[in-house]
Specification:
With 290 residues, the chain is an alpha/beta fold. The radius of gyration is 36 Å and the shape is elongated. The N and C termini lie far apart (110 Å).
Length: 290
């Protein structure tokens, strides 16, 4: 019988090929089993973590519900008892109200708060947009004989004249429409606190603050005056961040009883610095002793 070597080579090759395929299939089967185990472990771990998150979320919801109840109870209590809590709180307090960039629509709101709770309005002062006009600053320098070169110079001069009770010099600034100032009792020099009303609508509060408000804050602090920045819940622009950076107390909801209570408490104490009201920037709803 003639042996065909080619047949043997093909047969041996087929055997080794089959053996290789068998080993590969067996390896994959084992590998798939390991992968399945890993997947099962991962799914189990994820399921445990998901349950933990669900439990934590449930606890947070309960905690938030409890906080909301306390928060609403506090607001309800203040709304019912605010007047009795604040009656006479501002007795012997002379307070200035200052508007930056034109007279604020909230001046009358502040006047009513000050008067209602026993305080006196020393004056309401408005800085008009003309205070940043270089031509008008030069004109003011000529008419007053002062060396005005900037908005800061005008601001400093204004408060220096208020401190001296110098209405004549202030009238020069009024004639140039740089400021408006009104006093109910004529005692403009006698005040210990100032409430500032920044413009309620502005596309760039940082720019506005740096052009005018920061000079007002700096000068008032140099004269040892207590300052509060006030705004309403309807204000489209908030200046809390800018004033807070300059360590000035703020109230963002003076149109509400809780905001009125905050404002009166701050002016009464003339020492606290913090951010109060409803905005996310507020540290608490009202000033509270720790």
């Amino acid at each position: 019988m003639h042996i065909n070597m080619k047949y043997y080579i093909v047969s041996i090759g087929a055997i080794f090929l089959a053996l290789g395929i068998g080993i590969l299939v067996g390896f994959n089967l084992n590998n798939n089993e390991e992968i399945s185990k890993q997947q099962a472990n991962i799914i189990k771990q994820l399921d445990e973590e998901f349950n933990d998150i669900k439990e934590e979320n449930s606890n947070l919801k309960k905690e938030l519900n409890g906080t909301d109840k306390k928060y609403n109870a506090l607001i309800s209590y203040v709304n019912k008892n605010a007047d009795s809590l604040m009656t006479g709180s501002l007795t012997d307090k002379n307070v200035a109200v200052i508007s930056t960039y034109e007279k604020s629509e909230n001046v009358n709101t502040l006047k009513n708060i000050i008067n209602e709770y026993g305080g006196s309005l020393a004056f309401d002062l408005t800085f008009n947009k003309e205070i940043t006009d270089e031509k008008i600053i030069k004109e003011a320098a000529k008419k007053t004989g002062e060396k005005f070169e900037s908005t800061a110079d005008i601001v400093n001069y204004t408060f220096d004249m208020i401190k001296r009770g110098n209405n004549e010099s202030l009238n020069i600034l009024k004639d140039l429409k740089i400021i408006n100032i009104n006093s109910e009792n004529g005692e403009i020099a006698n005040f210990s606190s100032a409430i500032i009303l920044a413009p309620s609508e502005s596309s760039n509060p940082n720019e506005k603050f740096n052009k005018l408000d920061k000079f007002v804050v700096s000068k008032l602090k140099s004269q040892n005056k207590y300052i509060v920045e006030a705004q309403t819940t309807k204000s489209k622009t908030s200046y809390v961040e800018q004033y807070a950076k300059n360590k000035v107390a703020t109230v963002d909801n003076i149109d509400e009883k809780t905001g009125t209570l905050s404002l009166v408490s701050l002016v009464q104490d003339e020492n606290l610095v913090g951010n109060f009201g409803r905005l996310d920037t507020a540290s608490s709803l009202i000033p509270m002793e720790k």
